[in-house]
């Protein structure tokens, strides 16, 4: 997950620089928005709670499906 998140940040930063012609302006909102989720997800992984991890994974998947469907509808994709 950390590797995918890091790759996503790099892709966003590079595309942002190409779009605006300069580095910067990448506010970090994605890090602060996901920080609580990452902290919550880390705890059961360390404790080995399989049921909790399955519930968390299900919720995260559902939340992402809802968010993407809303975003696609909003942007007309």
How would you describe what is shown here?
With 77 residues, the protein is mainly alpha-helical. The chain is built from three helices and no strands. It is flat and about 45 Å long. The model has no long low-confidence stretch (mean pLDDT 79).
Rg over CA atoms, rounded to whole Å, is 16 Å
User: What distance lies between the first and last C-alpha atoms, to the nearest angstrom?
Assistant: 26 Å
Q: Provide the structure class.
A: mainly alpha
* Major sheet details: none
**What oligomerization state is this entry in?**
single chain
**Overall morphology:** flat
Mean pLDDT: 79
- What low-confidence regions span 5 or more consecutive residues with pLDDT below 50? none
Beta-strand residue fraction: under 5%
Number of helices: 3
The number of E-state strands comes to: 0
The succession of helices and strands, N to C, reads: HHH
Helix content: over 70%
SSE layout and pairings?
Layout (H helix, E strand, L loop, with lengths): L1 H19 L8 H19 L2 H26 L2
């Amino acid at each position: 997950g950390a590797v995918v998140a890091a790759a996503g940040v790099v892709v966003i930063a590079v595309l942002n620089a190409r779009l605006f012609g300069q580095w910067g302006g990448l506010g970090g909102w994605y890090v602060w928005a996901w920080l609580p989720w990452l902290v919550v997800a880390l705890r059961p992984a360390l404790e080995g709670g399989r049921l909790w991890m399955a519930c968390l994974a299900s919720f995260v998947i559902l939340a992402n499906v809802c968010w993407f469907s809303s975003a696609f509808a909003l942007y007309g994709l």
